[in-house]
Amino acid sequence: MASINDNFLKLKAGYLFPEIGRRVAAYAEANPDKASQLIRCGIGDVTEPLPLAVREAMHKAVDELGCRDTFRGYGPEQGYDFLRKAVADNAYAGLDISADDIFVSDGSKCDTGNILDIFGKGNTIAITDPVYPVYVDTNVMIGNTGDADESGRYEGLVYLECNAENNFVPAIPEEKVDIVYLCYPNNPTGASATREQLQAWVDYALKNDTIILYDAAYEAFIQDPDVPKSIYEIEGAKNCALEFRSFSKNGGFTGVRCGYIVIPETVTGTSSTGEKVAIKKLWSRRTSTKFNGASYPVQRGAEAVYSEEGKKQVQELITHYMGNAKLLREACTEIGLKVFGGENAPYVWVACPEGVTSWDMFDKMLEEANVVITPGSGFGAAGEGYFRISAFNSRENVEEVCRRLKTHLA
Ligand code: MLT
After folding, report:
1. Which domains does the chain have, with CATH numbers?
2. What gap in Å lies between CA 164 and CA 307, rounded to an integer?
3. Where in the sequence is the signal peptide annotated (predicted)?
4. d(C-alpha 372, C-alpha 401), whole Å
């Protein structure tokens, strides 16, 4: 008899985005005349084509694989040197991060889940609420929590409430936690954290021997020059923080898959015998056994994001999506809704009209406006009463969403 990992039975429902997909598919099947009018602003999936520089680099890499002299088999598990170096030189210029600190992967969703492999049992883990659901579910799966209560909160996790009063950046906890997940610019609220706020988190982490898991997947969308793009801009962060980044949203790699974790040598955890051990060493070891690297053409494509042409083309994509975010913000504001985010992030976070729940809003938008949004409560109990609109879409679709918002919610 093969026993199963019972922790999976604690998971409350299906993963948020497939669940939304299921509800949308059921609606489309029951209303075939409406199916072609649906506009999807739920999952944050890019819509615009891959930058030309990326495509050219990938084509070239595929051709190399087609030739005996330039063919490559297994690559280094931690990523090719050319990409690790391009990341360190471009994304971390001036921040004293070396190529050797970069661990290339097939994306941040996997990385933020897989990182739990190297941490022990019994850590006190803090997450924000609302939150990217992957952080919660992966902790449930690995056995770091008890059961969920009625609001969906799991026993054993420390929930850091984010709300309009704290601008969706949580207060530093009174208690000591061992690991905290922070994501800025934030998914789902679109909020950004100031240098002072991040400094307070780093100071807390250094004082309490806490590791910060900093998800910066949306850093490319930051418009305000005063908002830090990396946790390593904050003094002391190299001693307490790992940073997760992705090519999904800047380079349009959601389908191509490539991301990386930055792990400075100076971030340590503690063994059961009290010895300080470099996280980097453990992650490198774990990677060698469990991963064979992102594919060569994909890594060449990612490298091209940092070429002169690549940078220009990525900037055009960012400008496009942030233009969408601005239109969505304006439309929601015009009809009297309270709007957050969308200024340094591709997500617009909107308060539902008084008395309307997040899932009611989801149904209303689907059935009346034929627009798919994400219910805020899907990201945690504190997301109740909000909904998220993704700015990842064509301009034409976003303009149509704005018209429909004004027609159906004004
Ligand atoms: C989202 O919509 O929250 C994102 O697409 C999730 C992800 O990047 O995995």
Report:
1. 11-48+309-408 (3.90.1150.10), 54-307 (3.40.640.10)
2. 39
3. none
4. 10
| pLDDT tens sequence across 51-81 | 999 999 999 999 999 999 999 999 999 999 9
Q: In what order do the strands lie in the sheet with 211-215?
A: 102-105, 259-262, 241-246, 211-215, 179-183, 125-129, 157-161
R_g of the chain computed on alpha carbons: 21
Show the tokens assigned to 31.
């209303």
Pocket around ligand 1 at a 6 A CB cut-off: 43-45, 109, 187
Whether the CB-CB separation of 224 and 191 falls below 8 Å is answered with no
Strands 125-129 and 374-375, bridge-based pairing: unpaired
Cβ contact 345:326 at 8 Å = no
User: How far is the centre of ligand 1, averaged over its atoms, from the C-alpha of 308 (Å)?
Assistant: 28
Angle at CA 225, nearest 5°, toward 387 and 183?
A: 40
Pocket test for ligand 1, best of 15, 16, 17 (most atoms within 8 A of CB): 17
